[in-house]
Amino acid sequence: MRIGAHVDPVDPLDEAALRKADAVQFFLADPQGWKSPEPRADAERLSTAEVEVYIHAPYVINVATLNNRIRIPSRKLLLAHAAAAAAVGARGLVVHGGHVGKGDDLAAGFDNWRKTFAYAAKEGGFATPVLIENTAGGDNACARRFDALARLWDAVGEYGVGFCLDTCHAHAGGEDLLDVVDRVRAITGRIDLVHANNSRDAFDSGRDRHDNFARGTIDPELLVAVVRAADAPVIVETPGGADGQGADIAYLRDRLGR
Fold first, then answer.
1. What is the pTM of this model?
2. Would the N or C end of the chain have less CB density within 10 A of its end CB?
3. Burial of 246 (0-12, 13-18, 19+ CB in 10 A)
């Protein structure tokens, strides 16, 4: 099991060393912007490193929306990030499940996800495996509640899409962590990556605010149990820089005996 952290993109491998991490996740472009990622000078170094690399797609991407001014650029940007992620040897490209607008039919959002993969297939497919991540808030979200996640997987499962389980998002989204791994696998058949984060907010708050293992509203031993059950690579997206994330990585390793 590789355990790492979400880090600054300037020198991810140096950041990994500071945290004693054997996996990293980072952005390839402004997470709040629409610009395609530029080629990285360290692409070969990243792609041949022993540290596993994961890329997080920009937050602005929402392929589920019925708004074509967002949906169409979103799917094109997702393809661009998948290609750029492949260039740095990434194991997966994490993207949020997205949502539809207030009053819109959620079924149309699931169908738009299906259309995204169909569009990608016509363009030669995604160059890096896409890992859809569960989200914390929103009544119109495609991957907050697991009943919606099941409908999403009915739409996209045939395309071999992967899944990223975020513990803070599940907790804040109203999904119990006690049996979360079994319930996710019953829907998706897989967990490809775990975002192991504590939550600053209460269960079912709908608020996406991560915290370190030793703080927050989730029992840290429950976080360890989720990671153990998932048996997948782990990324902590917790605050505190190298010190805070390094402590969370060390805590996980100690409890897991790794």
1. 0.97
2. C
3. middle
pLDDT in tens, the chain (258 residues): 999 999 999 999 999 999 999 999 999 999 999 999 999 999 999 999 999 999 999 999 999 999 999 999 999 999 999 999 999 999 999 999 999 999 999 999 999 999 999 999 999 999 999 999 999 999 999 999 999 999 999 999 999 999 999 999 999 999 999 999 999 999 999 999 999 999 999 999 999 999 999 999 999 999 999 999 999 999 999 999 999 999 999 999 999 998
Residue 105 and residue 73 in contact, taking contact as beta carbons nearer than 8 Å: no
Q: What architecture is domain 3-238?
A: Alpha-Beta Barrel (3.20)
Which residue type is seen at 180? V
